[in-house]
Structures are given as C-alpha cells and as structure tokens.
C-alpha cells in the first residue's frame, strides 16, 4: 500500500511539472505572483549599478559548483618587456628620490624634482593609450608600479595612483569624444594637465547617486556666441589632487526644466570636464588627511556656465554619468587601494621578519617567542593573501571584464587585511614603529590606513550593501532574468518567460541542497578537484561551502524578498562567505602560478585554514541569525548536519610559517619584491634588511658561540662585543670571523635604533 502511494505521488509530481498547462496553473502562476510581490524594489541608481560591470569568477563561486578549470585557465599575470623596463629604471629611480619623512613632516608635499620626474617620465599616463602619448600599461603593471612606490611613501603613491584610477583620464579613454581625447589626453599624458575628479560632497559620500550638485540646461553667451550649455553649482570635498589640479572632472545632476533638449526634466547624473581657471570655478583650501602629504581639498562653483560639449562623451552621454562612474570605478577600485594594501604587506613582511630576527630580549631573538610567532605568521599569511588577491583581481581587469563584485571584494577585504598586517607589525616592532623619524618605515603607513578604509565606498557599506546585494542578483544564474520577467509590461509574456526559468531554478536549488548535505556528511570526499597533492582537499571544501552559500542565498531571497536589502548584517555575512571563497581561490591560483613551490606551502596552509574557517563561520552565523527559526533549523541540517568543523590556523601552522620565513630565501623574496632594495639606500628598511642578512651570514658562528657557552668555555652573561673578544682570545673564532661578527652587531644596533631629536 505504501509503495503504491509513493508511486502515485511520483506520477503526480511528474505530471504537474511536465504538463505545461497544469504546471502553469498550480506552480508557475502562484510563484510568479509571489515573486512580483516580494521582489526587492530597485532605485534607478541601483538598477544602473546592477547592470554595470560583468560577472566573472565570482559567478562560479556563487552558483554552488565552481568550475576550477576556469580559474586555472585565466593564466599567470606577467609584465611586458616595456613594463618591466619602466619598473627597473623609472620606478627604481623614483624610489631613490623619495624621502617620506621629509615629504610628510617638512614639505607637506612631494619635492618639485619628484613632481617633475613623475610628469616627464609618464607616471601620470599609465592607462592612457599610446597614440595620445600614454603608456597603455596593463592593470597588473599599474598595480605593481603603485605598490612599489607605496612601499616607500603612501603620499607619493597616491599622487601617482589617482590620475591612473577613477578620473578624467579613464573616463575620457572609455567615453570621450574624438575631439575631447585629442585635446585632453596628450596634456594628461605629459603632465601639462593635472587632473582631479570631484564626486564626493558634504551630503553625498557612499551614496554618490544622491549628489545634490546641479547643472541646469540653458542658453548663454559663451566666447561671444549664443550657446546651449549648463549652469553649474557644486560643493565638493575630499578631492585628491584638487589643490594642484588644472582640469576638473565633475559629477552632477543634470536638469532640463525648460525642455531645451526634450521632454525629460531630470536627465540624471552627468560628468563634465572643466579647466580650473574657467570663470566661477573655485579650488578651495587643502584638507589634512591624517597628516599625509598628498594633495586633497575642496572645489566649489557658483553659476558656472559650460557648453554642452564639455560633457564627457558629448551631449549623447548626458544622464549616463552614474553608469560611466560605476563601470570605471570597478576597474580603478580593483587596482589602486589594493595596491597600497599589498605594498603594506610586502613592506611589513620584509621588515618584521628581519626585525624579529635581529631584536633580542631575554637573550633570544624575539622571533623565537611563540607570542611573536603567532602575530608574525599572520603578517606573512595575510601578505601572501594580499599578493594573491592583487594578482587575480588585476588578471580579471586585464581580461577586459569589469568585475564590479570582485573589485568590491578586493577593496573591502584587502584594505582590512592591510590594516591587520600593519597592526601586527606595529605590535612586534613596538617602539621602533611608534617613534617617527627617518628610520621609521611603519608609522606613516599606520597613520594612513583609515584613509583607504573610508574612500571609494566606505568599507562598512561596501561589506553590508554592495558585495552580497549586487553579487546575489548579478551572479545568480536565474534571479536577474526572473526579475526582468516579473518586470515586463506584457504580463503574459513575462509569465511565459518566468515559467521557462522556474524549472531550471528548482533544479538548481535542489542540486545545491543535495550537494551541501552530501559534502557535509562525507567530508567533501566525492567533490571534484583539479589538482592532486596537498591542496586537493581545499578545492573540495570550497565546493562544499559554495553549495551552502548558493542554498542559503536562494532561501533568503525566497523567504525575505525585498526585506533582504534591509537585513544588512545577514547579507554582510553571506557576502563574507563569497569574499572568503574568492580570496581562497586567489591563494590557490597564486600557488599554481608560482609553480607549486614547496616553500610556499607553509603560507598556503595557514591562509587556507583561515579562509575556510572564516567562510564557514560567516555561513554558520548567517544561519544562526536567520529571522525564520524553522528555516534556520532546516538550513543547519542541510549545511552543517555534523556541526561546523572548520578550524582556524593552528599554533603548529603559525610556528611553522614564522620559522620558515625568518631566514633569507626564495619564498621570502616572493613576498617582499614589491618593497625593493636599491643601491645606496640608507633608510630604515635598508638598515634592518642589511642587519638581517649579516646576522644570517653569521648563523654558524652564533651556533658555535652558543655551544661554547653551554659547555662553560665562554660565559653566558657576556654582552655581544665582549663575547666576540673572549671567543677570539681562546681561538674559537678567527680574526676574520671576529670582524664579521662585530660588523653584524653594528648593523643590528643600527637596525633597532630609533630617531632622536634635539627639539620638536
């Protein structure tokens, strides 16, 4: 009897789903009505942001079954011979001209010779096409150049980065008219035109779509001719390079109250390019962004008239500024601030591994203490993660996609990782990090960190609104199309379209539910991996978590509908799952790109344990805080039926990583190359690195001295110089070895010294 009922039930289900008329009446039409009711309302700016940009690797991670071969197919980012030559010559020369202490504390500006060098050598033209005198460098080269400069000076790096990020150069390259490109791009390329872009104002920060600045279409005499144009009023702040700019990119709301262009009164956000010496343009005073020396300030305008052809792209681009900005920001946001953060990691890893090897307390190198090793391991692992994310994100941009979700992930998580790296480095280097002066290489970076956190979309809102809010809809294989079907004016056509999508969506959701449960029960044993060896399990575990993310996303959209937008803490946690999976993907990709180097494994193990732990933790917390408790119990049963067993990096992994990187070698070189050495450098970074190298070269001698102390032939209480002399007296070491030890100790003392001033 039970078997018969089961068979009848299965037949009924098959009939309902396979017979279109029955399916439409019993399933599609009710679901369609429900979907239209719970559909989250989108403002015009949200809709434009949703449609701007492309879905890239994050789409695979969001769908529950990543195709890892796709990740490996992206290729390894490389520099062209021209890019490498520029880095080896112009960039290295620029580094020799940078004295960050002087820039920040004395000049409050770059020295004139550095400004001139940046202009003359094309540092402001990295993204401008060659036909206009630019470099046309790749995103990877752009990132590498900014990172190397940032390893020595945040102020100098920001000065270079801004013209090559969101601003007139990028907007003109993508959208400018032929006349605008021919006039402006050569001037931007050779430094005659210094650009800034004014978007943020007192009433519009992260909500850039709400800018109150207005341009009213009108007619006015211009250069003696009656001209159709715009009368502009604006008040902008936090505008980098504004105090020295001679060309201003401006975003404003465009209105046509008299219908001079057509029937539309509110045309929308528009971007224009205006010389700063134009009548009515005011470049205000400087801001002081946490005492950094890069130029940042205000600009205002009162009844400033410009012709319509000053709109970037011409009058046909009127009202299209928001989409232009979102698309360009998706590239610049993935290059500039991540480059600064990665530079912080490389510099912190280089100096902190060195400092912990030359600084001694209680008769031991501080790098031997487990408390220090725990923090040092985080510095190294987070730097590996930063470098991995920098490369993968630049790869996407160089593939000519506009990965808006990926770049939001990169901006938020990489700036946060940069903050953690510098915090840990400061804890380890202690007094060395807080005493400002020419020897201090951490202090200015530490002071500047909150700037990256607040700009190009404040981090809190990037995490809670952008990553999941945009990613869930754009990356989902069905939801965006279903939203479009639900929004069709022809309801019958919309219903037909929705019916075609619904079956696929049901199958997709069912697959993810079974995948999440099956992988949880089997430890992901049967999930696919593109590689063998030690990293094999990481891919399997990420597939499991991807299925869990896809499942909870579908359930959240079904249960919460439009309310999901307002559940920011919940959506932020689900965004964290996607972000951690993206960062973990980047880590595994870097390991492959480096040729699966054995000495990279300690860093990879630490990073992957951390990423998987954080992804699972975010997923677990999203379930725990899900508003519907019954649904939460079901999600837990499917995703974590045996509990959350993903653990953070162990003490053993931390000790292994800290010890592996506390000596010179290829693995350390790969994680510090963005903080390069150059001939004649006498700054604090060079001092601590030289001491580190010299001390390591004496490793066998120190071991010999330690053995003699244990045996009693040398006193255990002697200070270094007295110890070396005593060892020489008993012929334990030669004169040459004595000199080598004395020199190493001189370098050690110079490295741990801090600056002193007669007066401040």
TrEMBL record:
Which family does the UniProt entry place this protein in?
Belongs to the acyl-CoA dehydrogenase family.
PANTHER family per record? ACYL-COENZYME A DEHYDROGENASE, MEDIUM-CHAIN SPECIFIC ACYL-COA DEHYDROGENASE, MITOCHONDRIAL-RELATED
Has UniProt tagged this entry with the keyword Flavoprotein?
A: yes
- State its cofactor: FAD
Keywords of the record: FAD, Flavoprotein, Oxidoreductase
SUPFAM superfamilies this protein is in? Acyl-CoA dehydrogenase C-terminal domain-like, Acyl-CoA dehydrogenase NM domain-like
Q: What is its EC number?
A: 1.3.8.7, 1.3.8.8
**UniProt cross-references to Pfam families, sorted A to Z:** ACDH_C, Acyl-CoA_dh_1, Acyl-CoA_dh_N
Q: What class of enzyme is it?
A: oxidoreductase
Domain named Acyl-CoA dehydrogenase/oxidase N-terminal is located at 86-191
Q: Where is the Acyl-CoA dehydrogenase C-terminal bacterial-type domain?
A: 473-757
What is this protein identified as? Acyl-coenzyme A dehydrogenase
What reaction gets catalysed by this protein?
a medium-chain 2,3-saturated fatty acyl-CoA + oxidized [electron-transfer flavoprotein] + H(+) = a medium-chain (2E)-enoyl-CoA + reduced [electron-transfer flavoprotein]; a long-chain 2,3-saturated fatty acyl-CoA + oxidized [electron-transfer flavoprotein] + H(+) = a long-chain (2E)-enoyl-CoA + reduced [electron-transfer flavoprotein]
User: Which pathway does the UniProt entry assign to this protein?
Assistant: Lipid metabolism; fatty acid beta-oxidation
Q: Where in the sequence is the signal peptide annotated?
A: none
Domain Acyl-CoA dehydrogenase/oxidase C-terminal stretches: 319-459
């Amino acid at each position: 009897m039970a078997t018969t009922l089961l068979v009848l039930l299965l037949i009924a289900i098959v009939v309902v789903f396979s017979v279109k008329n029955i399916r439409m009446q019993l399933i599609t039409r009710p679901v369609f009505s429900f979907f239209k009711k719970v559909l989250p309302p989108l403002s015009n700016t949200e809709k434009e942001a949703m449609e701007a940009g492309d879905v890239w690797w994050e789409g695979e991670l969001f769908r529950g079954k990543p195709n890892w071969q796709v990740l490996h197919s992206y290729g390894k980012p490389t520099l062209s011979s021209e890019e490498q030559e520029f880095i080896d010559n112009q960039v290295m020369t620029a580094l020799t001209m940078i004295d960050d202490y002087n820039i920040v504390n004395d000049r409050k500006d770059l020295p004139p010779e550095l400004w001139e060098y940046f202009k003359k050598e094309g540092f402001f033209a990295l993204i401008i096409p060659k036909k206009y005198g630019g470099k046309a460098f790749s995103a990877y080269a752009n990132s590498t150049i900014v990172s190397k400069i940032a390893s020595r000076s945040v102020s100098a790096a920001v000065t270079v980065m801004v013209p090559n990020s969101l601003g007139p150069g990028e907007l003109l390259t993508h959208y400018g008219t032929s006349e605008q490109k021919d006039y402006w791009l050569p001037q931007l390329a050779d430094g005659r035109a210094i650009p800034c872009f004014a978007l943020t104002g007192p009433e519009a920060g992260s909500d850039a779509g709400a800018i109150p600045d207005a341009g009213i279409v009108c007619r006015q005499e211009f250069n003696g001719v009656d001209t159709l144009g715009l009368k502009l009023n604006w008040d902008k702040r936090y505008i980098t390079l504004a105090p020295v700019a001679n060309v201003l990119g401006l975003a404003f709301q465009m209105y046509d109250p008299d219908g001079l262009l057509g029937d539309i009164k509110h045309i929308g956000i528009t971007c224009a390019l205006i010389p700063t010496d134009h009548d009515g343009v005011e470049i205000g005073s400087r801001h002081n962004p946490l005492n950094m020396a890069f130029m940042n300030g205000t600009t205002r305008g009162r009844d400033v008239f410009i012709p319509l052809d000053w709109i970037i792209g011409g009058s046909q681009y009127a009202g299209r500024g928001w989409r232009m900005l979102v698309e360009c920001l998706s590239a610049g946001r993935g290059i500039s601030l991540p480059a600064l953060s990665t530079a912080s990691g490389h510099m912190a890893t280089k100096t902190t591994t060195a400092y912990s090897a030359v600084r001694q307390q209680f008769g031991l190198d501080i790098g031997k203490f487990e408390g220090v090793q725990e923090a040092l391991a985080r510095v190294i692992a987070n730097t590996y993660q930063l470098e991995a994310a920098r490369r993968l994100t630049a790869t996407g941009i160089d593939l000519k996609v506009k990965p808006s979700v990926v770049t939001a992930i990169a901006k938020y998580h990489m700036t946060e990782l940069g903050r953690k790296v510098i915090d840990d480095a400061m804890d380890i280097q202690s007094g060395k990090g807080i005493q400002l002066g020419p020897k201090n290489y951490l202090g200015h970076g530490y002071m500047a960190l909150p700037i990256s956190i607040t700009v190009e979309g404040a981090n809190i809102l990037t995490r809670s609104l952008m990553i999941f809010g945009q990613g869930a809809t754009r990356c989902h294989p069905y939801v965006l199309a279903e939203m479009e079907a639900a929004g069709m004016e022809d309801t019958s056509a919309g219903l037909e379209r929705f019916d075609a999508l619904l079956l696929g969506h049901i199958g997709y959701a069912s697959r993810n539910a079974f995948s999440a449960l099956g992988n949880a029960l089997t430890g992901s044993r049967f999930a696919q991996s593109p590689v063998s060896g030690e990293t094999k399990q990481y891919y399997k575990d990420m597939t499991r978590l991807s299925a869990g993310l896809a499942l909870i996303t579908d359930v959240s959209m079904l249960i919460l509908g439009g309310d999901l937008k307002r559940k920011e803490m919940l959506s932020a946690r689900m965004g964290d799952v996607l972000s951690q999976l993206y960062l973990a993907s980047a880590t595994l990709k870097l390991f492959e790109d480096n040729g699966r180097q054995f000495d990279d494994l300690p860093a990879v193990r630490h990073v992957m344990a951390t990423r998987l732990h954080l992804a699972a933790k975010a997923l677990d917390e999203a379930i725990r805080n899900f508003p519907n408790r019954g649904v939460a119990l079901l999600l837990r049963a499917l995703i974590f039926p045996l509990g959350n067993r993903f653990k953070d990096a162990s003490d053993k992994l931390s000790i292994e990583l800290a010890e592996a990187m506390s000596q010179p070698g290829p693995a350390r070189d790969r994680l510090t190359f963005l903080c390069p050495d150059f001939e004649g450098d006498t700054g604090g970074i060079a001092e601590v690195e030289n001491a580190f190298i010299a001390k390591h070269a004496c490793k066998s001698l120190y071991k010999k001295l330690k053995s003699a102390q244990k045996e009693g032939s040398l006193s255990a209480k002697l200070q270094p110089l007295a110890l070396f002399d005593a060892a020489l007296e008993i012929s334990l070491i030669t004169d040459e070895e004595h000199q080598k030890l004395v020199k190493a100790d001189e370098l050690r003392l110079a490295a741990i010294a801090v600056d002193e001033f007669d007066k401040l």
